[in-house]
Write a structure and sequence with these properties.
- The structure is a homotrimer.
- In chain A, the strands form three sheets. A seven-stranded antiparallel sheet of chain A has the order 1-10-9-4-3-2-5, with no helix packed on it. A six-stranded antiparallel sheet of chain A has the order 11-16-15-14-13-12. A three-stranded antiparallel sheet of chain A has the order 6-7-8, with no helix packed on it.
- Chain A folds into two domains: about 240 residues, Naphthalene 1,2-dioxygenase Alpha Subunit, Chain A, domain 1; about 120 residues, 3-layer Sandwich (Rieske Iron-sulfur Protein).
- The first copy, chain A, has about 350 residues and is α+β, with helices and mostly antiparallel strands.
- Chain A has eight helices and 16 strands.
- In chain A, helix 4 crosses helix 7.
- The longest helix of chain A is centred in the C-terminal third of the chain and has 25 residues.
- Chains in contact: A-B, A-C, B-C.
- Chains A and C meet through loops of A and helix 5 and helix 7 of C.
Chain lengths: ~350, ~350, ~350
């Protein structure tokens, strides 16, 4: 047998959750959205990371910035709305301290008369910010391990699908009562497909699954679409156009990749399915699922992503249900680690990578 | 004075709750229902014990079995419905591992090809299971103290009431915001009856109470029904027939027994009232109250347990209210142990037994 | 710069909350209401202090008493209603133990026959009780620091406003999701007024604020009413009469005082605004706001406090909102202490007093 599942404390112990914050989520590149979510200067979105609110904003130079949503004066939360526009910078709603979009304190009423007060000492606390193929990623610790950074081969892999240019045609947010690792595990095997996904089975067979990334932060690989299915959708027909750059092989494939610790990326012949994974507590996870298409496809009057959305929404919900049942089981005192099968080799690889980070000196 | 009430931490401290799990609830025989709840092979009920889900099921041989509701593969909760039938054994909803009703793994898709995989290594985790006079009891630790086992005299005591054959004519579940011991205390004295139960007082007088079990896990004794009351019911009339085997004395008595740590058993001239006590957290307890009658009485077209149900439901609710007020008081920092009166000698005996288990080396 | 704001743990750590209980809230005089709330013998109100329920009652001699709401027998909560009348003393709803209004056990059914039982051993647990200018204050630890007691100058300060005789014409209770100190901070500066209170700005200017108590448990001072505003109210007109004893100066002033750790007192030309601050948990506070007027004003048929109530209710809600935003920010891991401005000198003084009590040996 491959290996064993993780001990129960990894799914249920708040101390493990806090240790993950320190060893993984403060050090890794965390996906917080798409560059297309904030196309213009002043556009912002709020995100939550490790229980703290973040502001992700495009500055005057067109660069994406990420700040803690905390005023440097009395600590007040600066922004409340989930997204919006900031025409004049970021103003604290309490005492009107005002920050530029690059985080520098621009004005603080009456503070200029305070002895020794230097506005430059009170810039917003910031996180590193990078964009790969349209995904905005942030990193708390500058010295942290650069998952995505170290894997240019991975990102270039999506060029044939024009990933950098794609925009979401649809988005669904799910709140799942399960630890984030259970969701990664679930996404990483099709052993469960025959029982859990009766509608997916005819489309692509678990037996066709293989893996081209098998160790480290990137894991996964292709499954082959059965005859009669041009993509994964209700009915099996395309929602968009097959990406023109795809090889003949890729036109009959769906890929399922996990990017530790916050993303699932699934290239389809005509669209890209992405899951952004937001850890919320030791037993709750938010999943933001998007269906990405080229903007020129989205602007067609007859375009609809409905068949792809419907199929994956159904499949997602089937998955979340067994994930929640698994959470309930593994947090029982009676749970003991069980054996991974050959079909679950990516789960064992995920656990190895996870434990290597958790046990790092 | 007899003794003093327990210090406040015993009613409010989550650490005490966990200690009780280890020293009492994992070692004692725990009542989980009646054999008549699962009459046929494949019938099951789910129960919760110490926060963990249990499957109680009748197997192909007619034996009652109890398993942790956790798959041995990935830890998934196997069953979700509170009760039902399992015609083909227990199948995990995630990867279709299938267990026989005796807990042995029958099939696990694709695992036969795994090197070194022996199905017999992956039977469901089980608890000991016994049935006394129709009550299904389970015990986590095989070496645990066998409360009920050690008391054959107690169980045989109910022969005159045909306890083994009785079936529930009615069931009410109550969720009470009080520690389980406060409910045992409440059931163990009638000092409160004059103020709390104005309707019970005319039926049977607190002054008539005596005790025939006064030390150890079994406590309690009879009260005498006043003239004009054939049983405890609204109106005082019988709902069923007086049990034919009862002595003249028992025909004018109601007995109130507590069986540590999960049962109250109350023989009446024509029925048996039972309370099953499920500890849920340090300040919440579920009570499942049943009115048991002989099956041949229940099948009479004119039979109704209504008068007994109505009376005890009213009385139960009166009790739960003062139990909840007591929980609120004893978890106050200002609470200090108070004096038990002579009428509360069974509470002092309960506390002695409880503390002896909690302090055992 | 003056000083820095407190570290985040003071606003978010349950251990700090418990330490405050021990070092501050069990030792200080705590305001629990007005003497006019319980005018006659037997009148009572319930209050919560440090998570424990208190009974505040007027006894047969007309004295105000304060007891823990816990029976000395089994610990049952004695009273449930938020207020009411106790014609015959305090009777426990469980076993009918009955206490006099001075807390002495009057009768306990059947206990007289218990050997060694002395009713005088079982008086209700009590707190010290004092009334200053109509405010009922209680103190848990007899040796505790006597905030109010030590400041006769402070209390006598309100003679011109007839404080002792005033009665509430209106009361509003607010539940705010913020630490109690954030509410004291908010009340102690008008630096936020220009942005947060656009309606207050024309009435009285932040620049007019000064302080006549600047160190210790009592802090604050006056602001000057602008021309055209006889008091603080919607429209700026008086709701009552100007207090006849006021100096010409005080007729054009509003005072804002904080009395550590449970009161804000704000004398106006024609009424007294009071906020009672009830700490509920590390991140929740209840505020009970009252508009006090002379009883003879209240009894006038044409009297209405509406203009004063409406104005302050709006202003209160503006404050609570920024307090809640501040709570969200300071409990973020990203929060770091920031600089107090000169306009926030009372906050720095509050923090000094607070820390001196928290760090006392």
């Amino acid at each position: 047998m491959e290996a064993s599942t993780l001990p129960g404390r990894y799914f249920a112990d708040p101390d493990v959750y806090r240790e993950e914050t320190r060893r993984i989520f403060n050090k890794s590149w965390i996906c917080v959205g798409r560059a297309s979510d904030i196309p213009e200067a002043g556009d912002f979105i709020l995100r939550e990371l490790n229980g703290n609110s973040l502001i992700v904003v495009r500055d005057e130079n067109g660069d994406v910035r990420c700040f803690d949503n905390v005023c440097r004066h009395r600590g007040t939360r600066l922004l409340e709305n989930a997204d919006g526009k900031l025409p004049g910078g970021i103003q604290c709603p309490y005492h009107a301290w005002r920050y530029q979009l690059n985080g520098v304190l621009k004005s603080a009423p009456n503070m200029s008369s305070e002895e020794g007060f230097k506005p430059t000492d009170f810039s917003l606390s910031s996180l590193q910010c990078r964009t790969w193929e349209g995904f905005i990623c942030v990193q708390r610790d500058p010295g942290g391990s650069g998952v995505a950074e170290n894997e240019p081969a991975f990102w270039s892999r999506f060029r044939d699908w024009q990933l950098a240019e794609l925009v979401p045609a649809h988005r669904i947010t799910y709140d799942v009562n399960a630890n984030w690792k259970i969701l990664f595990h679930n996404f990483s095997e099709c052993y469960h497909c025959s029982l859990v996904h009766p509608q997916l089975n005819p489309v692509t067979s678990a037996a066709s699954a293989s893996n081209d990334f098998t160790e480290g932060p990137l894991l996964g690989g292709p499954m082959i679409l059965n005859d009669g299915f041009a993509t994964v959708s209700t009915g099996g027909e395309l929602c968009g156009d097959v990406f023109p750059g795809l090889s003949a092989e890729d036109r009959q494939r769906v890929y399922f990749y996990t990017l530790f610790p916050t993303m699932f990326i699934s290239p389809h012949p005509d669209y890209m399915l992405t899951h952004r994974v937001e850890r919320r507590s030791v037993d709750r996870t938010r999943i933001i699922c998007e269906w990405l298409f080229p903007p020129e496809i989205c602007s067609r009057s007859e375009f609809s992503p409905e068949a792809a959305v419907e199929f994956w929404d159904m499949t997602n919900r089937q998955d979340w249900h067994v994930c929640e049942l698994t959470q309930q089981g593994v947090q029982s005192d009676a749970y003991q680690p069980g054996p991974y099968s050959k079909q679950e080799s990516m789960l064992a690889a995920f656990d190895r990578h996870y434990l290597s980070l958790m046990n790092e000196q």
